[in-house]
Structure formats: C-alpha cells, structure tokens
Design brief:
2 domains, 342 residues, 13 strands, 40% helix, globular, Rossmann fold
Length: 342
Amino acid sequence: YDQVRDRDGKMVPAFIQKDYSFLEDTGIVFSVPVHSATIKVKAFLLRPETFGSAPLFLLSTDLEENDEVSKSITHRLYDPNEATRIAQSIILGIGGGMLLDALNINPDFYHMNEGHAVPLNFYLYSKYKNLEEIKKRVVFTTHTPELAGNEEHDYKLLKEMSFFYHLQDHEVKYILGLEGDKFNYTLAALKFSGKANGVSKLHGEVARDMWGSYSGICEIISITNAQNHNYWQDAVLEEKIKSKGAAGIQQRKKEMKKQLFKEVANQTGKLFDENILTIVWARRFAAYKRADLLMYDWERFLKLMSNTKMPVQVIWAGKPYPEDTKANEIFNNIITKTKAIA
C-alpha cells in the first residue's frame, strides 16, 4: 500500500495493485494445505543482480486455480482478518519449505525472522520426526520487546487452519512442552530453534528476561542490527569521513539536508533550515517504538521548540500498518499537535 494524506494532512493508506516487471515467474507451482483445502502457490524470483540483493523468492496465491478467498491470502501484508493472517503464515512457513524442496535446496540453516514463518517447523517435523533434528537446522531472530506484540492464536483455530501441517494440537503441545489454549509464535520458535538472537545488546537482555522462565527454549544472544552500507552510505560523505576533514563533512551534510528538506516542504509545507540542529525519527511506525516519546512532557517539548537561542527542528517519518490502530493514532496525533506550534 501507499501512504497518502487526507485534507487535514493525516495518513490514509491507499491499496493499489502493482505489477513489477523485474519479478521473474519461475513456473514453480505447488500445493499447500490451508483449512483442509488445497491452495495453489506460485513462486516469483527477484534476481540478485536487479538491485544488488540476495536472491529473493516471493510467493503468491493469486492464481486462476484458486477461489477468490484463496487468491486474497497474499494480497495484503499482515491482513487484519485473523484467518487470513494465519493463512499467510502457513504459506510463508510451509510454502517456503516446500519451495526449497522444489528447488532441490537443502539449507544448512533455516532462519526465521520473527515468528511469522513458524509453521515451517511443522513441515520440517514431518520430514525429520524429531525436535532435536529441527534444532540443528533452525535459527530465529526475535524483534518485539513486549509480550503483547508477539502473535498468538487459539489452538483450535490453528488446527482447523492446518497450521500444524500433519500434527494434531495435542501432539504439538507434547513435542514442545506447551500448555494453555493459546499458541504463541515466538515461544514456539524459541523451542524449535537451536539458537536465537535479539537485535541489539539491550534487546537481547530484554528478550532473555521475557522468555527465560520458559523451559526448553534455546539460547538468546545479541546481534545488533546494522545498515546495509551499499544502500545507505552516501558515497561523497564516505569520502569526506575518510579524509577526516570536519569542514568537508559538515558541508556535505548540509547539501544532503537541503535534499531532505525539499521533500519535507513538499509533504508538509514547512521550510527547514540546514543550519539548525535537526532531530529525525525515521523508522517503521509501530506503536511500541514510541515515536511521540519526545512529546510525552508537552511543556518541555514546547520549551525545546521555542528556544530561539538554541533552535531545534524535528522530522518524523514512517509507515504504520493500516490496521495498527495505535500507531496510526500516534502518527496523526503528532500531525495535529505540531500544527498548532508550527
């Protein structure tokens, strides 16, 4: 989806069908069981030379062989419908495992980035019949530092959706040593994996505190997220940094600020000064990331913004998921509140 603004400047998602000529139809089609139905899945390939990335396979259920409901499984990322969201995880996890088999690829390790692909483990269990064999092959990255952000659903619904592949829910509980009526994706991933990581030193500590009381989980280490140098490092700025000339670095940063501030002016109608200290909050706009932290103490924020001797200007940028109500509320509240002091 794209982000657009309504007449008040608030964020509105625009769902637009897009066709990408650089995605290659591999011709690989296979069947994935979802809710006792057989869903046809096709794989598309983004070749590494296109954008200098790793080879990327994308899965689609939007095929003529599928009914309209099945086609829609892959239409929207993180669909708000619970059953569709579960189906997406099945396509990603079980479908991803099937694709690798179809490509005759036998990975040394399967890496799950968050718990969305956790059905992969049930597919692997159908092959290896042993939890320890899966642990030898699976690693996991957890991102979410609060329990509420870790996805979970009722066992009954997951069983009906074929989430556990050929296993019954009581077998899943026995294999993983789980209890209760809710299946937590992250907890299951930690039990299936040989090793897991948080995305910073502090987050690793938080994750160990969150999950450490559960038996059977793997070790959780820290691997700090970093930027991809090829994509995000300005070549001119890099040369200035290597030359260690402060004046050259400052000049290049001002030039880059001017480029950024043109976009700011285009989107918001506000003119920023490249000579003023600029605070930028730019990342995925999730509620738990607290984009509005700077505004928690509103009086202090007003003093900060009205200090003419040491002026500051602030940019917020990000993309909330359309159904993340709290994130959208924060996004739009920032727009509303800062309008009054602009």
